[in-house]
Amino acid sequence: MKSDMRVTFPLWMMCFILLIAMSIYLIGTTALIEGHGADEFTFSISMESNLTLFAILLVLIWGTLISFIIKLLKHNRIYPDKKLSPLYLKPPEYLEDDELFQQSTGHATKKVYTFFVTAIPILAVLYLVLPIGKMWMVIGILLLGFMQYLIYYLEIRKYVTEE
Amino acid sequence: MLKNRVRELRARHDFTQIELAKRVGVTRQTIGFIEKGEFSPSVTLSLKLARELGCSINELFWLEGEEEDEK
Description:
The complex is a heterodimer. Chain A is mainly alpha-helical.
């Protein structure tokens, strides 16, 4: 069960979210946006100063993406009746094999829902009140996504620890 | 809390958790959680378990404290 990618799917998503956040931070701190009148602006990224960081990030993104696809194909080969596709509308991490997992999925989604009910209004108020830049706003939203997967994974893991 | 005799009767029938899980159509984890008393199965699953373990549902499951009352 531990090798079932439906269980590890949130970890992969957390990894992708971190990489996206890192990309946004790197681009956000190196990009230069210059306005030319009301309708025009130029957007430039100075990669020279952070060439090593950009290269590391690119390797990490491609490495993670390739590993993810390999794991996904392996999972679909091992579990032909539980095939996963990132294109499904229903989150693939839902475990509904039997009563226990239907209940555990219910518990996990309830915890995630409770988190969002509190976190979204708090984040909205912070964005309204504090002078937060666009980059940090996007990173804040990504953080919510990261927390969502973390809460879900920690709850589901309780039911799959014993082998 | 729901108490049960699943582990004891499973051992008597010489079933592994996996075998019993297959017979009643659930995952092995579910049998493990039922045995530990951490998961209360539905009536349908309880009936299936009772059938496979050759006993009545009352012999298989009872509420904590009720067994002592009966004695």
